[in-house]
Amino acid sequence: MDIKKREADILVSIIVPVYNGEKYLAECLNAIAAQTYSNFEVIMVDDGSTDSGSVICERYARDNTHFRFIRKENGGPGSAFNAGLKAAKGRYIFFSDQDDTVSKALCASAVKTFEETDADIVCFGYKDFTSNGQYTDKGMSYPERTVTDSNTAMKMLLEGKINNAVWQKAYKREVFEDFSFPEERHIEDLPTAHLLLDKANKICFIPEILYYYRNDSTGSTMHTRSVRYDYDELLGNMERFAFLIEKYPELALSLAETIKLLITAFLKRSCSEKKSGSLNEKDSRLIDDMLERIHSFWQNHRDCLGNLTDMPHRMLFDVYCVFPKAALRLLNIYTGS
Length: 337
Hints:
Oligomer: single chain
CATH class of the largest domain: Alpha Beta
Shape: globular
Structural class: alpha/beta
Helix content: 40-55%
CATH superfamily of the largest domain: Spore Coat Polysaccharide Biosynthesis Protein SpsA, Chain A
């Protein structure tokens, strides 16, 4: 297909969730606006910002016909993604974090790849950079264009050769049919990256560096450690493991050691936080909920996972698996709560 005709016929959508990201938002939107591909729309989803981010979005929507603005109550990045997907009209879907930037060739390179390979997902290279303009050695790239299936891509995801983040990929619209991101979580990509790869018959990797990830941003969508973060990380990994056992059993065991380490870390944190007396009511409920989830998960998958390696917490957990109420009483006695 002729390039000009391709652009005229194929609209692409770029979804940008916005939450208190005023510092770098204009830089992000300017990079998107500079696309060499002309037929694109940008869906800016303000997820209840309390800074001037909404004002910036309003200005871009007013001054540039490529930009559309949605404002909603705060519900987390997954909720913002879902709102953006509902509004998107493009044949192909892209995502960008509010504090990152993209290559001006992002849309053109990905659309060309989609049309030439009929891929369902296109994975491209990315590079980390700092706010002083320095590029780092971190990132990901592929030596040449390669087309593969979901089984091989799933293995690559578990080996760390595909990033969990949605922004490292472009998607055919059909991939998101009967799909939604989990809402009210701090980590929305861990429980979904494998699901999206599974929905694709064909995944294409291209060597171009098309995305630039800001790795020192105070307004970044990355989060510091917290009970909520640890809860979401462990929950996402348990969900992924359960999915793999069902559909890719030969790959599931590669995640087993990570699951055990995360469970041990969560048990340690639970003891430490309860003992310190610093837990608020919400975090305390999260810990109790996760302990119940771990119990059920372990009962279902213990044959695959083996034993915990941290002896004191393994003993506590072994008691918990058989006598959960008694184990919680022991935990409360130990922590003095």
